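Here is one chain, start to finish.
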Amino acid sequence: MDDRKVHRALAYLATIALLGASSPSGGVPATPDAFMAAFKSAINTKDKAGVDRLVYWGKADAWSRDMTESVLSIYEAETIASAHLAPLDRSSADTFVGPNGVKYGPSIKPVYTVVLEYSHGPNVTQDEGSFVIGSTGGGWYIVAMAPVR
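Its structure:
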């Protein structure tokens, strides 16, 4: 095995060990930084199931799940170049009434905004997007929309 393959294999094993050490049981990232590393890895390796495991669905119904997944599918089609945490804006905890007459809000309390820079492909400048994350049960998750009372 040449040196590059050995280095790649060691880097891969170190990443798996780091994610495992920083996560509570079930593989959920235990810190915001571990969350961002797991999200970037899942997106850049086109691991849709891995992205879905990072969402806190809570009481999400079919409509709110479809809406959350449609937003995430935008990122799943891209390559994440960088990500950083930013403070929340006031609208992060807003509620709204969906077209089905149900009132929706965050599935868990939003804590940070994750700001992503991603690229579409060759000859396309980087673009930016964001979503919010929160913590529950010792893990960090993407905050989904869910019905609220």
